[in-house]
Please model this.
Amino acid sequence: MSSDLLDIDLHLSHDDFSLAVRASIDLGMTTAVFGPSGSGKTSLLRAIAGFDQPGHGHIRCGGETWFDSAAGINIPPHKRPVGYLFQEGRLFSHLNVSRNLHYAYERRRRDVQALRPDPVIDAFDLGALLTRQIRSLSGGERQRVALARTLISAPRLLLLDEPLAALDYNRKSDILPYLENLPERFAMPTLLVSHNIDEVTHLADQALSLKNGRVDRVGTVADLVDSLDLDTNTGRFDAAVLVEGSVIAQDPRLHLTHVDTGGPVLAVPGLPTVPNGERIRLRIRARDVAIALSRPQGLSIRNVIPGQITDLVVHTSIGAADLWIATEGPTLRSRITLASVEELDLTPGKTVFALVKSASIDS
Amino acid sequence: MSLPDAGPLWLTFHLALVTTLVLLIIGTPLAWWLARTRSRAKPFVEALTALPLVLPPTVLGFYLLVIFNPTSPIGALWVDITGNTLTFSFTGLVVASIMYSLPFMVQPLASAFETVGRNPMEAAASLGASPLDAFFSVVVPLSSRGFLTAVILTFTHTIGEFGVVLMVGGNIPGETRVISIAIYEHVETLRYAEAHILAAGLLAFSFVSLLGVYTLNRRYPVHVI
Model:
């Protein structure tokens, strides 16, 4: 697996928007470009692909210069080894599925080990769709074909521009499995644009977060999730922790999934059917975690996890506080009112029970 | 009743065919430029292209006659190179028809290219297709209806041309005497029967061609995804 660097220093402005991004991205893992609408995510991706030319700066990838205003270099898009998955797929409607895939194969980049179409067709379950016309495909099927087509063109860098944005919830869960672990499965460094924190945590390992055309933060996805805090990025309180676990049982009647998080077992409602033993990632929002001093009885909340407060951050301006609770398994984060902190006399070191109201699956 | 001479028929179709082919080659890049450019020159070029739609053919014909005249620099140069004059010749007629029919080729093509938009070109580029490759493998098939419309309109419009031909070409059998001129001459000499046959034939041909264009527009709507 290559761990090339994508070295970006670009300045771009059109109309009343300006983008100035300076970053060095390790392509060994999937990177999310995260931020609200209008923060410049797609502009950044389009500049990397060569569709829009920055005013000045440079874009280098793995020692190759794709753009350098000082040196007068601007490699046209079709000569950059970049695969771009557009929001709306952009399949060619005058070709059927199979000929869309072959269009990419005939023009594949010769300097890289190309994927044969057949294994990709198998991997994306496209066998039954090959003779279909593009018009007859559902949104999810289109994105699957478009992703397969992009991979077959043998890019060295894969750019995914909100690949799930145009799909409804069910279609999203149809295509998500195909997007997972792309770098590992196809040895393909990937940049994923998303404004959806769930997608980011599900698909990416590191994140570059943009705000108003500037880099806001670069780091691991776990750091990003941890830092989202009454943030204009999401417009709502979204601080959370990511918890890895394995499914130990599912109750189809109650739609309840039991997840072993390495100690505490969480009962999570409403998850899709997952085979036992499957590793999943749960996102537990801080505002979904309440605190009790003793194990409560007769409570609707099913997940009661004992732990110890390790950290306490008070936000006096909004009358709230964040607590970190070390449990037998993962560390949980809880946001409660300042009033509760004082009434319960919560301080670091104190033993408490974390009540997890809901753990949304991270998808 | 005698059948009209078939000469003008072949000459007319020959002229329309050559004009359409040349316009396909000139009009396609021009339409592409108009559909994609952000240049300030665009409205000027658009207006120039559309001029033949509103100008009386005699105006265009008059200026072409002046330019083609062997005593003018261009007309003289043409005589030097080819030994023939541009005025009252088939070649002059082709050049005049190209200018006269230009909007009928360029406008349907430009609007088809605009409908296709940039997205398919970007998608093709992201798969490694050069701009020329992407144009022929993606844009042309997606604009096929526009091409068909442009070709039919150009062809039929060239067949129906009268004023410019009269000004530039005159009425030389086998050289510049096209159907519309032949009809005019038949009427002038009161040979109405022959005029009827040619006129009705042209009417039927033009109607069927336009019917073809509008049927195609209805039956094969372009899908750009």
